[in-house]
Amino acid sequence: MQDLSSPNVTPVGGEDPRLKSAKTITTVIYALQAASFFVGITGLVAIIINYVKLSDVQGTWLASHFRWQIRTFWFGLLWGIIGAFTIFLLVGYLILLANAVWIIYRIVRGWLNLADNKPMYI
């Protein structure tokens, strides 16, 4: 796989079409993660796309967004499960609320950085 961040692959007068396509996919993944609050299955679709397309973004600034999205999914799922299992103790409601706020923050922060063509810190 060729490094998409290399100046040698960027056509004169524009952005590399493969990098533009990868950015579009990254945007779609953020949208799917956001939609998962209403239609839960879209979160699963998003993580599958993340793993399928991960090799396409290796070596680019978009790889940091993929790591950010993957970590958001897995840690969100972990805390969601912990919250669900502790809901009878009433602390579960707080865990679930904090988890939802954290996931929303991660989606918004990532999407804003993506719109500004900035990588995510990890």
From TrEMBL:
Keyword Membrane carried by entry: yes
Highest taxon above the source species: Bacteria
Entry keyword set: Membrane, Transmembrane, Transmembrane helix
Residue ranges crossing the lipid bilayer per the database entry: 28-52, 72-105
Protein name: Transmembrane protein
Species this protein is from: Mesopusillimonas faecipullorum
